[in-house]
Design brief:
With 339 residues, the protein is an alpha/beta fold. It contains 14 helices and twelve strands.
Length: 339
């Protein structure tokens, strides 16, 4: 009888032990899932208003979806300061650190990190045409570890805007950095539109920011207007562009709002903050298991007419009534605001 009671007690103890072990195992698994902190690397090509806004929109968009930096995600932001070798160094580091997801802001940063890994999911933003930049097989079905959002702007509408604000213009300078694939893509679209509008175009290219002042000065008396797309080098040096262009009396039509507040005359532009938010929604899908190779490149549909009222005044531009009603007016950002 004693032996039977002892065996029963041992059996009960074994069952309790197994139950506790099973319970502990289940709790541990659930705790691991809840406590998962996703490591997100960010490589940004250069600092300027548009790219900074895209990054902020991305971070805010993730937080709105329940992914807060320092809690269930950890964001590692790296800026290449417009240096291609820095892009490569940053890309290598983010891949070596085995990030769960990488965000690449602007084409040079995206190309660098895409060359480093075919495994880690990469979302890009502020890239005009990912397929043209060889980041995906097609924008409709990437087929790679890369997807994201395009900042393709309405180049045709921007050129039409130029003819309305500068109706006597016959020759237009295409100002961009020759090293940026996204800029070349947009310039080709703008040139096609210019031809249809019977505008003559001339290239005004720079290799880096140090050449901006000289190149813009060289346009005096040669062109009636300047067009610059969403080019990172020009955007970062927009203060210099507008300062020189104003001095020689040449209006500048630009690719996005940040370039307008930098002194450009006007644009039909997308909202880079919203573009970042849009990219964040894609990031949530990737973190939750969606196959990035099947996620189409996304675009922003709505563009806004933005006019710099300071540039209008300096250049004595007459804004047509229909544009005046449609436009949102901005001022040129001053150094005191930036400090």
């Amino acid at each position: 009888m004693k032996l039977m009671k002892k065996a029963a007690a041992l059996g009960l103890a074994s069952i309790l032990t197994m139950s506790l072990m099973t319970g502990c195992g289940g709790s541990k698994k659930e705790e691991t899932k809840e406590d998962k902190v996703y490591q997100i690397g960010v490589t940004q090509y250069v600092e300027h208003d548009a790219l900074d806004a895209a990054y902020k929109g991305f971070v805010d968009g993730l937080e709105d979806a329940g992914y807060k930096d320092g809690e269930n995600i950890k964001i590692d932001l790296q800026n290449a300061q417009a240096d291609q070798s820095n892009c490569q160094t940053i890309a290598s580091k983010l891949v070596k650190d085995k990030k769960d997801l990488i965000l690449a802001i602007a084409t040079p940063a995206a190309q660098a990190v895409a060359n480093e890994t075919k495994d880690i999911p990469i979302l890009v933003t502020a890239v005009t045409d990912p397929a043209d930049a060889k980041l995906v097989e097609s924008n409709e079905e990437p087929g790679t570890n890369v997807s994201g959002t395009s900042d393709l702007t309405p180049c045709k509408e921007q050129m039409e805007l130029l003819t309305k604000l500068v109706p006597d213009a016959k020759k237009v300078a295409m100002l961009y950095c020759s090293a940026e694939a996204n800029s070349k893509f947009q310039i080709d679209l703008a040139k096609k539109a210019a031809k249809e509008l019977k505008l003559e175009t001339v290239d005004a290219t720079v290799a880096d920011s140090n050449e901006i002042e000289q190149v813009v000065k060289s346009l005096k008396g040669k062109v009636d207007a300047i067009y610059s797309p969403t080019d990172n080098v020009i955007a970062a040096g927009m203060t210099t562009v507008s300062m020189v262009a104003d001095e020689i009396g040449i209006p500048v039509i630009v690719g996005e709002e940040g370039m307008c507040t930098g002194g450009g005359l006007a644009t039909y532009g997308i909202d880079y903050y919203k573009l970042g938010q849009q990219t964040a929604k894609m990031a949530v899908k990737v973190l939750e298991g969606e196959d990035i190779s099947k996620m189409p490149i996304e675009y922003q549909e709505d563009c806004e007419l933005i006019i710099n009222k300071d540039a209008v005044k300096k250049l004595n531009i007459k804004v047509p009534e229909d544009l005046d009603k449609e436009a949102r007016y901005v001022e040129t950002a001053t150094e005191s605001k930036d400090e």
